[in-house]
Amino acid sequence: MAQQWGEGARHADWRKVRRLLCVRLDAMGDVLMTTPALHAAKAADPERRITLVTSPGGAEAACLVPDVDDVLVHEAPWVKATPPRASSAPDHDLIGRLAAMRFDAAVIFTVYSQNPLPAAMACYLAEIPMRLAHCRENPYQLLTDWVPETEPKVIRHEVRRQLDLVASVGWRTADERLRIAVPDDAAAGIAAYVEAFGLDGGAPWALVHPGATAPSRRYAPERFSAAVRELARTHGWRIVLTGARAERPLLERIRADAGDGVVSLGGRLSLAELAALVARAPLLISNNTGPVHLAAAVGTPVVDLYALTNPQHTPWRVPSRVLYQDVPCRICYRSVCPEGHHLCLDGVAPERVVEAALELMRLRAPSSADGSGRSDGAYAWALEVDAAQRLAPAANAAPAFAATEHTP
């Protein structure tokens, strides 16, 4: 039978784990928000070897995570983003690979709406002796260590959720920041871009990331254009647009609307190079998507256009302005706006984006030698511990969104 929040002897069993499998089958941002929990697992025993099973997109991020030793890529049929396939052969292959690696334990990380039991079954069939996860229903023998699911009744930031999971077996860390390591070659390549675009000349500049996988999380292109145009023409900012290759038409539209002072790197950067660019930038303006969590991992302030699809993914422990318009249909957990009006984002005027950007730029630390505008991570204001609680202050009540902007 599964154990619930066991301590004592059970914690001692988990302290002995040397070969740990972690399962996080989601996208880049989800992997990044799991890095504090991965660090807690490693900090509990620096000799512990961590293997992460994740999606192709998650694997790009995982390769930048210093606490991950090995990465296995798997497109699981129980995850939404996995394309249909005609055979279960990849799943049988994964189970065989896991069995051959002889793990001591597995931790299955999920968002609250995901069922951990398919992954738990794979770990069970791979003869992994200890298996930990949040689960809503009784998992019986599929989990040896069961943390009962409390969401959505109790709202936590996604980072806190995963930290709580590993804390249930005694793994904790005082350093709860998101964490990545930017490769030296990526940093060098971005330094060349910064020089070529004249971004190190002292004038203010920012990254703008106007895309997002989920349509419900996209601020309207014309509103992004208006904000970028105001920053570039009125305030003299240089703007660098980033996005995937498929988003090039969007970026070109914004660049053309804004005119001089705007360049696009759409489709030209690897994830490592994007991380290096975010680390170098004084500010990121973005929809609530993966680069926001990259910024949190490298300490870059963020203006986050935050669709009210869910409250758990606000920027974690980084200076930020979280912009949205309160709506009755908030917290829909939908990738496409179910009402069709998109008011939680369309209600945010471009002028408010500009105001938030100017405020963060004023509040940042004095310019540092690397041109990033940061000085050893020292900022002139205190950061909140749990960003989700800014959107859901009552732990046992439905989140109430009473404002259109939240500040640390």
Q: Can you characterise this structure?
A:
This protein has 408 residues and is of the alpha/beta class. It folds into two domains: 165 residues, Rossmann fold (3-Layer(aba) Sandwich); 211 residues, Rossmann fold (3-Layer(aba) Sandwich). The C terminus is likely disordered.
**Overall strand count:** 14
* CATH architecture call of the largest domain: 3-Layer(aba) Sandwich
Q: Specify Rg, calculated over alpha carbons.
A: 21 Å
Main pleated-sheet profile:
7 strands, parallel
Numbering strands along the chain, what is their spatial order in the largest sheet? 1-7-6-5-2-3-4
The CATH superfamily of the largest domain is identified as Glycogen Phosphorylase B
- Point out poorly predicted stretches: 367-390, 392-408
- State the helix count: 14
Distance between the termini: 44 Å
Task: Please state the overall shape, judged from the principal axes of the Cα atoms.
Answer: globular
Order of helices and strands: EHEHEHEHEHEEHHEHEHEHEHEEHHHE
Q: How many structural units, i.e. domains?
A: 2
Give the strand content: 5-15%
CATH topology (fold) name of the largest domain: Rossmann fold
Task: Give the class-level CATH name of the largest domain.
Answer: Alpha Beta
**Nearest-integer average pLDDT:** 87
The percentage helix is 25-40%
Derived from helix and strand composition plus strand pairing, the structural class reads: alpha/beta
